[in-house]
Amino acid sequence: MIAEGDKVPKFEINDANGKKVKSSDFKGKKHAIYFYPKDFTPGCTTEADEFSKDYKKFQKEGIEIIGISPDDVESHKKFCEKMGIKYTLLADVDKEVSNKFGVWGKKKFMGREYMGVMRSTFLVDEKGIIFKIFPNVKPAGHSKEVLEEFSKLKNN
């Protein structure tokens, strides 16, 4: 996994509307990049819902939210419509971005091992530097955690 203090890896993938989005599109903006396993699953729905409810607070602070999962554009589009998601969701179908951030790997669930996305969030300042990493995120309450970390950045 990349570390705090590293620059955001370069990437270019499609959003929920099939539009190409590049990491450089967020240059000069504070942003949170959160990786999640799958649209419409309970934890991912909780996390997306909380970021949606707090999205106006993030916007007021000039912070962009970017969600990334291996789901395709069509799944993201349906997820955005059903959940009322106004922020960017990116389709990392080939797991290229997940691999660059080091969040694609072996997971265990109910005694079974499989490859998947390890739920993680990366907070990025205006210079494109990752200043905080949340590995193994618990979805409930995470959006507020992210807002708190950004407010610490502002107060330093």
Q: H/E series, N to C? A: EEEHEHEHEEEEH
Rounded mean pLDDT is 94
Structural class category: alpha+beta
Q: Please write the CATH class name.
A: Alpha Beta
Number of helices: 4
CATH architecture: 3-Layer(aba) Sandwich
Q: What would the CATH topology be?
A: Glutaredoxin
The global form is: globular
CATH homologous superfamily assignment:
Glutaredoxin
Distance between the termini: 26 Å
* Count of the separate structural domains: 1
Strand order of the largest sheet: 2-1-5-4-3-8-9
Strand content: 25-35%
Unreliable segments (pLDDT under 50, ≥5 consecutive)? none
Instruction: Supply Rg.
Output: 14 Å
Roughly how much helix do the residues carry, as a percent range?
25-40%
For the secondary structure, the number of strands is: 9
Give a quick account of the main beta sheet: strands, pairing sense, barrel closure: 7 strands, mixed
Q: What descriptors fit this protein?
A:
156 residues, alpha+beta, Glutaredoxin, seven-stranded mixed beta sheet, two-stranded antiparallel sheet, 9 strands, 32% helix
Characterization of this structure:
A hairpin with a 5-residue loop joins strand 8 (120-124) and strand 9. The protein has a 7-stranded mixed β-sheet with strand order 2-1-5-4-3-8-9, with helices on one face. It has a two-stranded antiparallel ribbon with strand order 6-7. The protein has helices at residues 42-60, 73-83, 96-101, 142-155; strands at residues 12-15, 20-22, 30-35, 63-69, 88-91, 104-109, 112-117, 120-124, 130-134. By secondary structure, it is an alpha+beta fold. The chain has 4 helices and 9 strands, in the order βββαβαβαββββα. The longest helix is centred in the N-terminal third of the chain and has 19 residues, at 42-60. The two termini are 26 Å apart. The protein has a single domain (12-155), classed as Glutaredoxin (3-Layer(aba) Sandwich), CATH 3.40.30.10.
